Amino acid sequence: EWWVQLGLLVVAAIVPPLVWSVRRRVSDVSYPLVAGAVTVVMGLSFYVFRARTHFDGDGYLVKSMLAEENPLIKFTNFGAVVVNRFVYGLLSDIGPDPSLLTFYLISFVAGIVFIISVAAAAEVVGDKPRHRTLFLLGGVSGGYMLLFFGHVENYSLFAATVGVFCTVGVWIAARRLNRWVILLPLGVALLL
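Request: output the structure for the sequence above.
Response:
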């Protein structure tokens, strides 16, 4: 689409001078405000730039299995299938393809959870708002973020859980959480 290319060109032309002009004032801006802005912008970009037909591997298979009345559930992805079936049950009367909408919604929400977990880890890792912001921007600029743009697979849930697992680990290392709390995201990750 031409309007997407134009929008990216405008953003590319405006953002660098804007960042350059406010870079000295970053330390005055509160980090929760920056983290909230990054979360909102990324959440909107997950929706606006969502993949139209991003079916890697067996994406068609998991999409068709979701629509079946009695799907095959393997223990290796038991948690992901349970989440997918629950959301599919909520959305089954909406739109012409509720299974695709289910994967889109789960992918978007998993992306938001991932961004919030990176922001929470940055709170512990960085000692200044500038360092926290750099950690946050670095964490949300990796290639794995493509999983959150409507990916039709179960990997987006797993990536979000790994993000939460790492954040809990950072908080435990900083002695802000009990060390046994790590078992919660670990258990969830094992089911996905």
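The first helix runs from residue 2 to 22.
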